[in-house]
Fold:
Amino acid sequence: MEIFLTGATGLVGGEVLVKLSKKSEVNKIFCLIRAASVEDGRNRLQHIFALHNDEFDETKIIPVIGDLFDDGLTTQLKQSPLLNNVTTIIHSAANTSFAKVKDDLVEKANIGGLTKILLWAKQLNSLNTFMYVGTATICGKDVKHRLVTEDESPNNNATHLVKYTYTKLRGEQLLKEHLPEDKILVVRPSIIMGDSRGIEPRSPVILWALATMNKLRLVPANPYASLDMVPVDFVADVMTQLLFVKRNYRVYHISAGNDACTSALQLAKVFDHHFDDLLPHQFVGKEMLNPLKLWAKGKLPSNHELFEHQDYLDYIEESFEDVTNLRILFAGLDPYIEFAELGQRFDNSRIIEDLGITPSLPGHVYIHKCLKYIERINLLEGAIDP
Ligand SMILES: NC(=O)c1ccc[n+]([C@@H]2O[C@H](COP(=O)([O-])OP(=O)(O)OC[C@H]3O[C@@H](n4cnc5c(N)ncnc54)[C@H](OP(=O)(O)O)[C@@H]3O)[C@@H](O)[C@H]2O)c1
Structure:
């Protein structure tokens, strides 16, 4: 098997790269990577393996220097004789930002970039499988508090909280426009949070929303809404296994499903237990997010009910040297709170049926293994570039 992988330096791609590199059936993994030179690209790849002391075989892992933003990318890939025998493409690269200011970049990377890869892939005679890493959240924001199945998406009528999920939906449609059905494999992870092995996650910033909740303690969210989160090691296991089994479907959720979902309350209990010197979490509902923003600006009327939680407000003021930074924090938190509010659970019966895999652990069961990494996250940086 010869694989072409995008997004190898990311949370998911890095884990998948290391796993696939250990498979004897895999002869080569060409990694599309942004770098100034081949040497620089190789160094970036080496770094991925060094994180957990995995063996880096430079005869098997080969950098292909390129950028999804480059207009010449399709031609570059078509003209590269190295790639003539690629059998499997895994497209994991994306811009995953929820921030409105990044909308243009998100569209350029996730729609424009994918199109460039597809224009190369569609004329690649050796290609058997194009695995597209989508997202379960393409179902949109109108689906609330229930189990969602794969066949409900892509749905053109879905409305989206952020541009990102729209671009991922469009991505699945582009796949169908360019490739025959039998070459398409779509995986849709739910929310990827941390690593259940207790090792350093490849991208700790992915835990930013939890780290922020843990630090604030006064949480403007619904404590009971289902949260479908999975650890990155589970996601990479499923993706890898799917490449080697007889598949009965073209699209798979990689999710916690009905039985292994968690909730903000269940996660908060774990945090309260481990950080017991802080005030216990207090949930005040999503409607308190705007009052919190106003309070951070010093503009909240003094008779507002938020002041019933004066002890928490004092604590927040003490913990954040500059309260104006809180505005940035709350702005970053906004879309996460909206997503969490939806209470979506994503059916995982397809992966269980086809892989016989043990379902993922619920978030509140494994999250304690990530706590030391949560503490290291720079909340402000994460809010600006989550
Ligand atoms: N994280 C989640 O919770 C989650 C949930 C569901 C689905 N997904 C999907 O899973 C996939 C991987 O996500 P992730 O969390 O691993 O993302 P990530 O950690 O942000 O990694 C993104 C990767 O894409 C690469 N990339 C971005 N723009 C690029 C460009 N212009 N040219 C070339 N490479 C580019 C990045 O390369 P650089 O290192 O050079 O920036 C990086 O390797 C995405 O498709 C995402 O939609 C993620």
